[in-house]
Automatic annotation (TrEMBL):
<dbReference type="GO" id="GO:0005737">
    <property type="term" value="C:cytoplasm"/>
</dbReference>
<feature type="binding site">
    <location>
        <position position="251"/>
    </location>
    <ligand>
        <name>glyoxylate</name>
    </ligand>
</feature>
<feature type="binding site">
    <location>
        <position position="159"/>
    </location>
    <ligand>
        <name>FMN</name>
    </ligand>
</feature>
<feature type="binding site">
    <location>
        <position position="168"/>
    </location>
    <ligand>
        <name>glyoxylate</name>
    </ligand>
</feature>
<dbReference type="GO" id="GO:0016491">
    <property type="term" value="F:oxidoreductase activity"/>
</dbReference>
<feature type="domain" description="FMN hydroxy acid dehydrogenase">
    <location>
        <begin position="1"/>
        <end position="356"/>
    </location>
</feature>
<dbReference type="GO" id="GO:0010181">
    <property type="term" value="F:FMN binding"/>
</dbReference>
<dbReference type="InterPro" id="IPR012133">
    <property type="entry name" value="Alpha-hydoxy_acid_DH_FMN"/>
</dbReference>
<feature type="binding site">
    <location>
        <begin position="76"/>
        <end position="78"/>
    </location>
    <ligand>
        <name>FMN</name>
    </ligand>
</feature>
<dbReference type="InterPro" id="IPR008259">
    <property type="entry name" value="FMN_hydac_DH_AS"/>
</dbReference>
<dbReference type="InterPro" id="IPR037396">
    <property type="entry name" value="FMN_HAD"/>
</dbReference>
<comment type="similarity">
    <text>Belongs to the FMN-dependent alpha-hydroxy acid dehydrogenase family.</text>
</comment>
<dbReference type="Pfam" id="PF01070">
    <property type="entry name" value="FMN_dh"/>
</dbReference>
<feature type="binding site">
    <location>
        <position position="254"/>
    </location>
    <ligand>
        <name>glyoxylate</name>
    </ligand>
</feature>
<protein>
    <submittedName>
        <fullName>Alpha-hydroxy-acid oxidizing enzyme</fullName>
    </submittedName>
</protein>
<keyword id="KW-0560">Oxidoreductase</keyword>
<feature type="binding site">
    <location>
        <position position="249"/>
    </location>
    <ligand>
        <name>FMN</name>
    </ligand>
</feature>
Length: 363
């Protein structure tokens, strides 16, 4: 039998130390945002169109100059070697094989240059983006950016939803507040402030402002996307500032527990952006139909976080390949059932609230 994401999650749970499983699985506070990310998708339905002549389907999308074979990419998640000894390179090989983007993070347990090399060993033009938290000292941020550029990353994803670290109650219960011996945030080694044997800590900085983002953009030619946008006002500022893309996200429910589900925040952000830059979404995407709903509501692509960690923990590179292939096949299937030939055929007229008696009226 082909394992579903639910099977892989269960395999991951059985294989992982419970403290690590809970670190991956958990959210902030009472985990309302975490729960709602998935639940909000269940409250939406797709209203399919028929007889559209979509015999051949092309799932590809282009984002910030990179072509993705499907509108599903890998969102940044920390510390892949907690899931599997091969860590981020295994994820990179699987993602490259799927022809999509891996967003590798500054909290990776393998240096970014090794991650891009692993991806390019599978596919010469594999796209790897680099996620970073702006550090309070600009010289540290700049050193990280140069590292990502030298490694051949093709975009920067700046996470802006973490002025302070989320309060993760599962981790507090386990007393899980450090990496096991032998694992470290390898991209933080050798930066200003690091000592020879100890990588620098990743800092969260509540004092950051749009000035810091402006400085970053002046220092690099790479496209810069902002991750963690939920408010349409921030989306409008980002467009005016010249940002290259947005990722609507509540950080998988790990930061502000009172935040809305990502899919609920998407329509207002998409409306504010009005097609001027790509809008992506992550949080709670577990099926191809979730990706289709997000695209219909204005996303150009979706990201997945935890499902990739489940695949990695369950079966290494093979497990991640399986996760991405499942999502690709499901998305293709749903697109066909909705009468679509490409992601661009999915529009807001296809999405209705479940249980809404007037949902089927002509649009
Ligand atoms: C274990 C874990 C670690 C994460 N680490 C990061 C990180 O280092 N940087 C970041 O911007 N987001 C991080 N995220 C958030 C993800 O990028 C993404 O927003 C979230 O996982 C999407 O929700 P999903 O897990 O429901 O797909 C992390 C999420 C998880 C579950
Ligand atoms: C595995 C031990 C947990 C360590 C928690 C304290 C470290 C804070 C700085 C690390 C930043 C890593 C970001 C990861 C992330 O965004 C997320 O978990 O979500």
């Amino acid at each position: 039998m082909i394992p579903t994401l639910t099977d892989l999650r269960e395999r991951a749970r059985k294989r992982l130390d419970p403290r690590v499983y809970d670190f991956f699985e958990g959210g902030a506070g009472g985990e309302t945002a975490l729960h709602e990310n998935e639940a909000a998708f269940r409250r939406l339905a797709l209203l399919p169109r028929v007889l559209r002549g979509a015999a051949t389907r092309d799932l590809s999308v282009t984002l910030c100059g990179d072509r993705l074979a499907m509108p599903v990419l890998v969102s940044p998640t920390a510390f892949h070697r907690l899931a599997h000894p091969e860590g981020e390179p295994a994820t990179a090989r699987a993602t490259a094989a799927a022809g999509t983007v891996l967003v590798t993070g500054m909290a990776a347990t393998v240096p970014v240059a090794e991650v891009t090399a692993a991806a390019r060993a599978v596919q010469a033009d594999a796209a790897v983006w680099f996620q970073l938290y702006l550090q309070p000292e600009p010289e540290v941020t700049l050193a990280l950016v140069r590292r990502a550029e030298r490694a051949g990353c093709t975009a920067l994803v700046v996470t802006v939803d973490s002025p302070v670290f989320g309060r993760r109650e599962r981790d507090a219960r386990h007393g899980f507040d450090d990496l096991p011996a032998g694992l470290a945030a390898e991209n933080m080694r050798g930066l200003p402030g690091a000592t020879d044997d100890r990588p620098r800590d990743i800092a969260m900085s509540p004092g950051l402002s749009w000035d810091d983002l402006r400085r970053l953009r002046a220092q690099t030619r790479l496209p810069v996307l902002l991750k963690g946008i939920l408010h349409p006002g921030d989306a409008r500022i980002a467009v005016a500032e010249g940002v290259d893309g947005l990722l609507v996200s509540n950080h998988g429910g790990r930061q502000l527990d009172a935040a809305p589900a990502s899919i609920e925040a998407l329509p207002a952000v998409a409306e504010a952006v009005a097609g001027r830059i790509p809008v992506l979404l992550d949080g709670g995407v577990r099926r191809g139909s979730d990706a289709a709903v997000a695209l219909a509501l204005g996303a150009s692509a979706v990201g997945v976080g935890r499902p990739v960690l489940w695949g990695l923990a369950a079966d290494g590179e093979k497990g991640v390949r399986h996760v991405l292939e499942l999502l690709r096949a499901e998305f293709d299937h749903v697109l066909a059932l909705c009468g679509g030939g490409s992601p661009a055929d999915l529009g807001p007229d296809l999405v209705v609230a479940r249980g809404s008696v007037r949902g089927g009226e002509a649009r």
